[in-house]
Amino acid sequence: MYKIIPFVPFPTRTALKASRSFVNIGSWIEKFSPGFELSLKQAEIDLRGKEYFAIALFSFFFWFSIVFSSFVLIGKLFDIGRLLLLSLSVSLAISVLAFAYILMYPKLIITRRVLDVEKNLLYGLRYLSIQVKSGVPLFDSLVSVSKQNYGRLSEEIGNCVKKVSTGIPVTQALEELVLKIPSLHFRRSMWQLINSMRTGTDLGDSLDSMVSSLSSEQGVAMRRYGSQLSPLAMMYMMLAIIIPSLGITFLIILSSFSGLPITKNIFWMILAVLIVFQFAFIGLIKSRRPPIEI
Question: What is the band of 60 on the pLDDT scale with cuts at 50, 70, 90?
């Protein structure tokens, strides 16, 4: 089953057929990105690296031709001259953005998945520790975790449980899960659990050690995040409140001395810039927040 890839103009199966002529170029590009195929596997995109690059190249030329043709058609319909340079610039910009986003899409999926797993990892390990220390076998404890409301963590543990149910050893299923999710905290916890099973160490003590270590690290991350909020708040006050207020006042005073008119368009432009800054600042705050569920 193929995933829907944003900015690819057709369903993935159709785009794969349409992009066959770009596969050789995709193979050449893949040589410079040796880890890209692993990223596709971690993002659960059922394509080979050269096929994905071929689809990205096909999408680039598709969007370039569509946008450029639309501009040319508009120029002929409305008899607009000197539209060629603008058409080329806009078409190239849109197609490059689409191409770049398609290439970054697997990394975006992986990042989102890592955040979804890490925000519930501490609670999942704590629940697993309680189950194991209560005498519940590890497999049954993993089944219990998969049925809890731990978001992506429960889903991934559930996939691991299904593999074990088909006859795969627990350690092998956990190793495959570690390779699938490139989260440092998750991998470290799972490898510690796997080593404990292989060496015969008490699983309850190992899980308690994981919970304690992860809890300390999350506390440090939250304190670091809190220390970053003060300078960010100061920057917000300067750029979104003080500078616009003083700037508008300065423009009004300057116009009274110079006689230059201040139109409504200037104030609309200032408002538009402030709105864009507000959304960008909210995104900055969210990106710096540690993946911790409270």
Answer: very high
Burial class of residue 99 (count of CB atoms within 10 Å of its CB; 0-12, 13-18, 19+): buried
- Provide the domain count of the chain: 3
Q: How far is CA 93 from CA 12, 72, 98, 104, in A?
A: 23, 16, 9, 16
Q: 266: domain range? A: 224-288
Q: Please say whether the beta carbons of 198 and 175 come within 8 A.
A: no
- Helices (H) then strands (E): counts for the chain: 13, 0
pTM above 0.70, yes or no: yes
59 and 139 part of one domain: no
Residues counted in the chain: 294
**Mind listing the pLDDT tens digit for each residue in 224-241?**
888 888 888 888 888 888
